[in-house]
Amino acid sequence: MIVDNKPQHETVMLDGDQLPAFCPNPAMPVWSTHPKVFLDVTKTGKAACPYCGTVYTLKPGAKVHAH
Prior knowledge:
This protein is mainly beta and about 70 residues long. The protein has strands at about 10-15, 20-25, 35-40, 45-50, 55-60. The protein has one domain (about 10-60). About 15% of the residues are buried.
């Protein structure tokens, strides 16, 4: 039996109107909270939370609105 020991991180798909991206997001359970961090997904299309590893990715075709 082969066991994969790599941690499995959730991927959250974001649309342009859901920016700025931040973690923990509102869908996460309260018990798993950590300090709130804002993540820049506009440069590469994705970013990972430094605390929990959740990956935030822009949906294909998402339009980033200037603030």
